[in-house]
Design a protein that fits this description.
The protein is globular. It has 4 helices and 6 strands; from the N terminus they run E-E-H-E-H-E-H-E-E-H. 33% of the residues lie in helices and 34% in strands. By secondary structure, it is of the alpha/beta class. The protein has one domain (2-118): 3-Layer(aba) Sandwich (Glutaredoxin), CATH 3.40.30.10. It has a 6-stranded mixed sheet, with helices on one face. Strand 3, helix 2 (45-60) and strand 4 form a beta-alpha-beta unit.
Length: 119
């Protein structure tokens, strides 16, 4: 998995990995803890607006939640498998199963509440 380490405002932000059709099962379904998958695409305006919020979530939930991104244009097989029809879609996987799907942009406070319930 290609991972990038992000920084924001001088403080380190949790590592967010990029998953592909080939790495999804290993990185998400076989993960020991819960995983948040951000299904996105380059051309998606709401995805770009949500990106810094996902970065903050990765940092705030570090140690409790693994966060990865999946470009649906480059990896359509997984998006099709999980019926991702609209982006952005945030999906929480626990124990290899999809447990929560959040479709569309949401403010950070609402995402925090929904993720806390999902975890």
């Amino acid at each position: 998995m290609a991972a990038k380490s992000l920084t924001g405002g001088g403080m380190a932000v949790a590592e967010i990995g990029e998953v592909t059709n080939g790495s999804f099962d290993e990185e998400v379904l076989k993960a020991k803890g819960p995983v948040l998958v951000d299904f996105w695409a380059e051309w998606c305006g709401p995805c770009r607006v949500l990106e810094p919020i996902v970065d903050e979530i990765a940092d705030e939930f570090s140690g409790r939640l693994k966060v990865v991104k999946m470009n649906v244009d480059l990896n359509p097989d997984i998006a099709t498998r999980y019926h991702v029809m609209s982006i952005p879609t945030l999906a929480v996987f626990k124990g290899g199963e999809l447990s929560e799907r959040l479709v569309g942009y949401r403010p950070k406070a609402q995402l925090d509440q929904e993720l806390a319930r999902a975890l």
